[in-house]
């Protein structure tokens, strides 16, 4: 089996290539603005629903969930603030000499900071949770704690639907995105002329519908600490794993290869689960659906025995693509 580390590294490298990154930004930023507008419109009625559901939950659970959400918010802010501080300190020294190094730096530092702050919070979980749940939140009335939890719950729901819309758009226009990646990495490889039946469209719509249905049905459980995180991880992994694999295979696999590769359920689930964890990392989360698409694409190419082009060849091809875009 192909090296997972090499596949992840190759996927990250591709994600920060300008021809690929441009497509990511052109897709992700407009969708983010659309969901910000939708959130502005539906925020108040959704807040009423969230607050009503939380009103039926015992205060001890609301308090525990509030502590978890506050710790998550502290973690996200710590990652962003420390990233901004480190960047401000070293940018004048190193960034002028960097070409693509800045993108590697951004992704690498964000991941390291996310892991480091997560470890620090988990290591001091008892102390921090007690300080928030047993001291800070006890001083506040139930209504204040409930409304705060409802606001964060609103954010979870709207963010989940943003990821869903990004997944659907990428599923629909995946060919242009993947062909750019293929042209850079595997210029000598020609995809099969005859497209196989993977039922990608049916599976993508089915999984999207189940994502919405399960989000609605499990909505009350999102106020229970730890359970809400596990639900989000499962729903995102469920969304990514099957449709993304089938959509990629439809473009680049023969029927025999598709039948063989779909037996690797553990690998596919592992890639989807890892990607779903990245949805929690600030900034990087906007790129997650594209990242899982790239990982599965490179994994399929590796399993097919297709070797990538050399670094010099990739550099030359990328320069050609950038030059053609500038004309």
UniProtKB/TrEMBL annotation:
UniProt entry keywords in alphabetical sequence: Membrane, Transmembrane, Transmembrane helix
Pfam families per record: EI24
Subcellular location: Membrane
InterPro entries assigned: CysZ/EI24
Chain ranges passing through the membrane: 20-46, 66-95, 102-128, 148-173, 208-238, 266-292
Membrane topology category: Multi-pass membrane protein
Name assigned to this protein: Transmembrane protein
Native source organism of the sequence: Nitratifractor salsuginis (strain DSM 16511 / JCM 12458 / E9I37-1)
């Amino acid at each position: 089996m192909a090296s997972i580390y090499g596949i992840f590294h190759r996927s990250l490298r591709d994600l920060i290539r300008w021809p690929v990154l441009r497509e990511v930004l052109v897709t992700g930023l407009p969708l983010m603005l659309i969901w910000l507008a939708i959130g502005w419109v539906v925020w108040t009625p959704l807040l009423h629903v969230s607050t009503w559901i939380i009103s039926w939950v015992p205060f001890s659970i609301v308090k525990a969930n509030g502590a978890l959400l506050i710790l998550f918010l502290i973690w996200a802010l710590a990652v962003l603030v420390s990233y901004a501080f480190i960047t401000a300190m070293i940018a004048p020294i190193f960034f002028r000499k960097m070409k693509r190094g800045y993108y590697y730096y951004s992704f690498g530092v964000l991941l390291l900071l996310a892991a480091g702050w997560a470890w620090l919070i988990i290591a001091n979980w008892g102390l921090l949770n007690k300080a928030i749940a047993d001291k800070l939140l006890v001083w506040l009335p139930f209504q204040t704690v409930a409304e705060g939890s409802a606001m964060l719950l609103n954010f979870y729901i709207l963010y989940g639907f943003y990821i869903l819309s990004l997944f659907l758009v990428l599923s629909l226009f995946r060919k242009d995105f993947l062909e750019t990646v293929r042209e850079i990495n595997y210029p000598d490889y020609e995809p099969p002329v005859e497209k196989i039946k993977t039922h990608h469209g049916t599976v993508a719509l089915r999984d999207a519908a189940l994502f919405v249905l399960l989000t609605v049905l499990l909505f009350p459980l999102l106020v229970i600490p730890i359970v809400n995180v596990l639900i989000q991880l499962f729903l995102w992994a469920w969304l990514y794993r099957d449709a993304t694999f089938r959509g990629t295979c439809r473009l680049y696999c023969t029927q025999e290869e598709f039948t063989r590769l779909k037996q690797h359920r553990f690998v596919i689930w592992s890639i989807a689960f890892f990607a779903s964890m990245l949805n929690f990392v600030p900034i990087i989360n906007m790129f997650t659906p594209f990242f899982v698409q790239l990982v599965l694409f490179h994994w399929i190419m590796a399993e097919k025995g297709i070797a990538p082009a050399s670094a010099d060849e990739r550099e030359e091809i990328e320069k050609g693509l950038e030059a053609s875009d500038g004309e």
